[in-house]
Amino acid sequence: MMKHLVNTLLLFLLAGWLPAQGQSWKTLEQNVLKQSEYASYGTVILLDSTAVSVTPAGSGSFSVYKAIRVQSPAGALSCRVLKYDYDPLTAFARFRRAAIHKADGSTVELDVTKACDYVAPARAIYWGARQIMLEVGALEPGDVVEYEIDKKGFTYALLSDVSEVDDEERFVPPMRGQFYDIIPFWSDAPAARKVYRVSLPAEKELQFQFYQGACSSSMHYGENGTKVYTFAVEGLMPFRREPNMVDLYDAAPKLMLSTTPRWEDKSLWFHKTNEDYGSFEPLPEAQKKVDELIKGKESEMDKIAVLTHWVADNIRYAGITMGEGEGFTLHNTKMNYTDRCGVCKDIAGTLISFLRMAGFEAYPAMTMAGSRVERIPADHFNHCVAVVKLSDGTYMPLDPTWVPFCRELWSSAEQQQNYLPGIPEGSDLRITPVSAPENHYVRITAENDIDGQGTLTGTFTITAEGQSDASIRRIFTTGWQTEWMNTMEKQLLAVSSKARLIEVDWGENPKDYQAAPIRIVFRYEIPDYARLGDSEMVFKPLTMNGLYQSVRTYLRIDTNLEERKYGFKDGCSRLVELDETIRLPKGYTLVSEGRQSEERSVAADFDGSLSQEEGCVTLHQRLALKKRVYEASDWEGFRRAVNAHKAFGNYLIIRK
Predict the structure, then answer these.
(1) Whole-model pTM?
(2) Average pLDDT, stretch 112-124?
């Protein structure tokens, strides 16, 4: 172990460190003090510099440097402890130096040997990530905190058990010889200068691109013919977020670079890695389950569906370290089928094994849930899924992790999402298609009566498909049966605290999501639903008054915003159809005239009407939201359609 540490530190020293890249933090501080736009921030990053030296094997020695100026008591509090995250399976990190440059001109050197190394906070996935932390102590406005961190390794999980490999080998990336990095050029505090420099062996070729912004870049030859690339940005201000916007990686400035030539190379490597490991070898007891599940299934889609649903519903998500085979390597069939738990790759791996035992060609695929993957093959992935080859030769993506108790095989909450299959012939980057709104309809049909005292009585029926079905049905598939009735009552109580559920019919077995789309019928009474005045009543249509808001995720998007600079997201494409008839008390009529509304765009369509005939008010609405991820240019069409829909939820006035 001592030899390992000595070698690691030696490599750091050989890599060298040029934090200022031509400018000292003192010069940058003087520039900051001259510019008023920095004055209101609690801290200003004077210099954020990373220098990387890459070995022929692909591992990197990183020198991270920061100088932060404290400008307020709140800023002082935010800097009193320095933190840096790393994965001990794949990297080594330590504070090299830290100091406080006081406002009075004095310097306090901090004892970096007192830095602590703790388990990092984790949620859902517990793979042993750690943090190094160094207490700075009390600071005052005008102080500058300066520190350096040495790191060695890479930023993805290891392919084999660390106890079985040499210490130095654990720093070599899974795709040996290849180096990549993804560098966000944004922060919550302004940065006077941010620099990223990487030095590569002469024989390595690097492709890169700076997205969603501009930077200065250069390449020159260093010692021994190394290629040194430098990227820098001056005057970075905090990125202004918009509500419901796309991921920051899809909107804010970022640098991506990689020595891997094409995504096809990564696809072939990913395929070979798991085939060599034996991730999908058959298992007799699992084969017995597969034979049982597909018995009597004639079509390929019936077989694929039953296997996908069984895996989705029966393999629990549990992100604990499973030992050998983390990272890009999928655990084998025996471990997955025996443990019946794991993360996305274990659930996907189980399905791939099941499909192969059923006679299909199936393979793993990498994807990025939450943001897009760019053309630069820099491993921007956080999720594992499966692909199966159909009889027509096409590959169909499947995601058992995201479809437990869902009528879909690929979750449409993952529409417009890039993925890379690890298939024998290799594959370029692919993208999942948009799912038509009709595949995720939610329909509410209500028949109501209002009496002269303002009491509303009636029935409504809700039906749904796809992602809408999964949302409404969740209480039946994953909730306690003792809570079923309470959940139904809460839907009416969201409309009025005086609502009384008289009867509800959720069918013979609402847990059986594969049988048919969900259908629930409510019968109810709501006293004082209408507000009474002199010869008039005021009330909202029931279908527009809080029913099943959890399904109508678009209502959480603030459509008062007139413009958007960045793309935005909804939960899923969706079709909302609302039909309601309201029989009025004798002698009452609507004060306003009936109306119609229509909106059409590439993002959303809306049709709505309100009419009155023979003492009965009829409301009809059809809102089609056509995407999950929208461009900024889609905002006007989306906004007009949703606002037109919301307008039909205004109070109705009836008068004698």
Answers:
(1) 0.90
(2) 89
